[in-house]
Specification:
It is built from 11 helices and 11 strands. Helices cover about 45% and strands about 15% of the residues.
């Protein structure tokens, strides 16, 4: 295998721009058979309803069964059994789906089971907890299938509820010796993402972050690509674009004022950058909100 295949979020699956989905494992087995080892560019919470077999997320090997929830963050590599017998559902979403509504950009980062340095990607629910989670998943899926009539506020509320309930599940520790060498990489990435959260509005040059971490810019880009699925530079850009969307959505600041607040050289450069990343101008984005 010359490279790891990456699956990106299929945002136009329902002919509307939707950044959340609930997919039965049986419906994406054909993709597993084609690329049993692959990288995901989005959040994936897979609820195991039936079966008992090995799954691997990055270097974490685990035997999963009913009641288990496998939690992966963008950039992580999955390795399935090629002819998997597992059954269940994957709740998949982009961070933007929540951030476009909740002003707390740290919400996902504060969930222990979605942190980069977590000891395990595996949660276990008791039968009562699991049945409640499956009911909410079913409600979410039913709302999605309303297509153009689906209510995104209801979808976000259900996602928020599920994410909160998962916090009550048990984080199952794994005893994998293979995990030890990558712990330091995860710590670098956790420090990097925290630094970006605190400084991205004023500092967007890689040397600033690399110097803070006492590593080279090349190494920072390398480990960011491995863990986050994108270069460090692109991660910083994504943060900047998301903040600009928040300011366009929730404030009356002018384009020039937003450009100044984000420390972008000129309003015209901000417009070009925003359009290149989103496919529309800031004014069009604001009018469509």
């Amino acid at each position: 295998m010359k490279s790891i295949h990456q699956y990106n979020f299929y945002r136009k699956k329902y002919a509307i721009d939707l950044l959340i989905d609930v997919v039965a494992i049986k419906d994406f087995k054909k993709f597993i058979e084609k690329n049993p080892t692959h990288r995901l560019s989005y959040f994936d919470l897979t609820f195991i309803v039936e079966g008992n077999e090995e799954l691997v997320i990055n270097d974490s090997k685990m035997i999963v069964k009913r009641g288990d929830i496998v939690c992966s963050i963008p950039g992580q590599v999955w390795s399935w059994q090629e002819n998997t017998k597992l059954e269940g559902y994957a709740l998949v979403f982009e961070e933007d789906f929540l951030l476009s509504f909740f002003m707390d950009r740290y919400f996902l980062r504060n969930l222990s089971y979605l942190q980069v340095h977590r000891p395990s990607p595996l949660l276990t629910a008791n039968e009562e907890q699991f049945e409640i989670l499956l009911q909410h998943l079913n409600s979410l899926r039913s709302e999605i299938l309303k297509l153009a009539d689906c209510n995104t506020d209801i979808l976000r509320a259900l996602l928020y509820l599920i994410l909160s309930l998962l916090g009550n599940c048990e984080l199952r520790a794994l005893n994998n010796s293979e995990q030890k060498p990558v712990i330091i990489i995860y710590r670098y990435i956790e420090s990097f993402t925290s630094l970006v959260d605190a400084n991205f509005m004023t500092k967007r040059d890689l040397p600033f972050y690399a110097d803070k971490l006492f590593i080279t810019t090349n190494y920072l880009n390398k480990i960011a690509k491995e863990v986050l699925g994108s270069t460090a530079k692109k991660y910083i850009l994504n943060k900047t674009i998301q903040e600009s969307k928040n300011l366009l959505n929730y404030t009356s600041l002018s384009i020039a004022e937003i450009s100044d607040k984000l420390n972008i050289e000129t309003p015209s450069y901000f417009v070009r950058m925003f359009r290149k990343h989103t496919g529309m101008t800031p004014k069009t984005f604001r009018n469509n909100c």
